[in-house]
Amino acid sequence: SLSMVLAYWGERLQRPELNYTVPETARAIADGPRADTGNWPFNTAFAGRHPGLRAYVTRLGDIAEMEDWIAAGIPVILSVSSYLTRSPASGPDYGHLIVCVGFTDTGDVVANNPGVSVRKNVRARQVYAREQVVRNWARSKNTVYLIYPETAAIPANRLGHWDDGSAAAGAVERTGQ
Predict the structure, then answer these.
(1) Is the Cβ–Cβ distance between 92 and 111 less than 8 Å?
(2) 53-85 burial, b if ≥16 CB within 10 A, otherwise e?
(3) Residue 134 and residue 109 in contact, taking contact as beta carbons nearer than 8 Å
(4) Helix (H, G, I), strand (E, B), or coil: what is residue 111?
């Protein structure tokens, strides 16, 4: 999911240095001796190290807030139960990341799923029933990664769930810098 979003911004911003293969991304974010790639702060820290990009983990109040980000042209990485994409009978729920890129006319979620098998001719772009996404996203308490250019026009922060830059502006005012 991270390499998908970085590639999206690489294309939109004409910045080829943002295009990483999945193995390159995995090596860059590997956490500890297990080389775990599911560490949310490591993922966003890697994205945010690129000049001009903001990247952080937060929680949204509901799917309507995600719709605001999509309307602004900013894809959202969701942490969902792995049962969104596979049967609970297949084993434990280790979680999964997908990239929300849009919504259908009926409100279902259009997402890029990095866990599909292109070798089996399954496309990464999938449509998931809205209720199914809401239920499986709730397992992570609606956790998302937000990654976007510092110059992006981001949605109004109605509920205080993301960094709109006002905290940094307030810090500058308080320190007199």
Answers:
(1) no
(2) bbbbebebeebebbbbbbeeebbbbbbbbbbbb
(3) no
(4) strand
Does an H or E element contain 144, and which? strand 143-149
**Where residue 52 sits, what CATH number does that domain have?**
3.90.70.10
Tokens of 99: 């990239």
Q: Does residue 76 contact residue 144 with C-beta atoms inside 8 Å? A: yes
Number of structural domains found in the chain: 1
The confidence score (pLDDT) of residue 36 equals 74
In this model, does residue 175 exceed pLDDT 60?
no
Reading phi first (left if > 0) and then psi (alpha if -120 to 50, else beta), residue 137 is in alpha
- DSSP-H helix ranges across the chain: 2-12, 22-29, 40-48, 63-71, 130-137, 166-175
pLDDT digits (tens, 9 = 90+) for 104-133: 999 999 999 887 765 666 678 889 999 999
- What's the token pair of residue 2? 């991270």
Place of tokens 């084993």: 91
Query: What pLDDT is attached to residue 118?
Result: 59
* Domain span holding position 169: 2-175
